[in-house]
Amino acid sequence: MPAQDENCKCPLKSFFNKDISVARANLLFWPIVVLGIVADLWSKSAAFEWLNSLPAQHYSVINGFFQFVLVENLGAAWGVAAGRTVPLIAISAVAMVVVLGVFLFNRKPQLLSVIALGLFAAGICGNLYDRIFNDGKVRDFLDFYYGDWHFPAFNIADSMLTVAVAILILATITKK
Questions:
Q1: Is the pLDDT of residue 120 over 90?
Q2: In a domain, 168, yes or no
Q3: Does 139 reside within a domain?
Q4: Rounded distance, CA 58 to CA 45, Å?
Q5: Marked catalytic residue, from 40, 130, 140, 143
Q6: pLDDT on residue 59
């Protein structure tokens, strides 16, 4: 197999490392943040209102695999630090400042990094809103399971945070 030239143009690498202007970064970042927050808060509100109206307060979409549930998480991921509302709010606020700082002070933004930062900001804000205005509890409603095993319930904000991490990992491993 011939050795690959380090300077070859790989479409995937160039996509993951595509530089964009600061103006375009702003046109991408802020709508992702706003739409992400709206999607998260609306979906939580709609799911909880709907599920509260059901006698069983859950709805099976795919029996044995996926259902909508009512879960209020007092902790972070997987219930870590449950009941520690003030530190969790503080950590979220610091994380938001870091994300905004990285975005605002980046003079050479890259497409996928901007998307990831927008998703981070939206996810942090969605769950931070819940912590502040829902007695420290984050509303989760998506439940994937198999038999008695359940992946921890999550929400749209959690999904945005997970996708942001995946994007940053891909961007890092495909770095120029």
A1: yes
A2: yes
A3: yes
A4: 15
A5: 140
A6: 96
For residue 34, give its domain range: 19-173
Q: What is the pTM assigned to this prediction?
A: 0.87
Q: Quick check: is 82 in a domain?
A: yes
Instruction: Answer yes or no: are the C-beta atoms of 106 and 25 closer than 8 Å.
Output: yes
158 as an active site residue: the answer is yes
Q: Does the residue 169 lie in any domain?
A: yes
Is 140 an active-site residue? Answer: yes
**Structure confidence at residue 171 as a pLDDT band (50, 70, 90):** confident
In this prediction, residue 12 has a pLDDT band, given cuts at 50, 70 and 90, of low
What's the mean pLDDT in 136-144?
96
| pLDDT for position 31 | 98
Cα–Cα dist 110/20, whole Å: 6
Q: Which of 40, 130, 143, 158 is catalytic?
A: 158
Number of domains in the chain: 1
